[in-house]
């Protein structure tokens, strides 16, 4: 799998995400029919779906840093060498 460390161990959520990616390599084919896309369209933000569906647009990914009540706090994680 692209970008995965050779010795990486995937949890259930990661395995599901990987299976979904392999079945639908272009997320734009699924997102327009999602409830989230419909909600964004209702408030005039339909264009955000296309922006959020971009792949490999950034070299940083979010990692969950902490849970604060119902809120989640993330920190940026950069690939090795960046």
From TrEMBL:
This is Probable 2-phosphosulfolactate phosphatase. Signal peptide: none annotated. The lineage of its organism: Bacteria, Thermotogati, Deinococcota, Deinococci, Thermales. Keywords: Hydrolase. GO terms for molecular function: 2-phosphosulfolactate phosphatase activity; magnesium ion binding. SUPFAM superfamilies: ComB-like. InterPro entries: ComB-like (IPR005238), ComB-like_sf (IPR036702). The keyword Nuclease does not apply.
């Amino acid at each position: 799998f692209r970008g995965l460390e050779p010795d990486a161990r995937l949890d259930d959520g990661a395995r599901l995400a990987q299976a979904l990616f392999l079945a639908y390599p272009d997320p734009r084919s699924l997102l327009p029919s999602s409830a989230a896309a419909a909600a964004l369209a209702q408030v005039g933000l339909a264009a955000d779906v296309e922006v959020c569906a971009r792949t490999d647009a950034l070299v940083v990914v979010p990692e969950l840093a902490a849970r604060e009540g119902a809120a989640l706090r993330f920190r940026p994680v950069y690939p090795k060498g960046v």
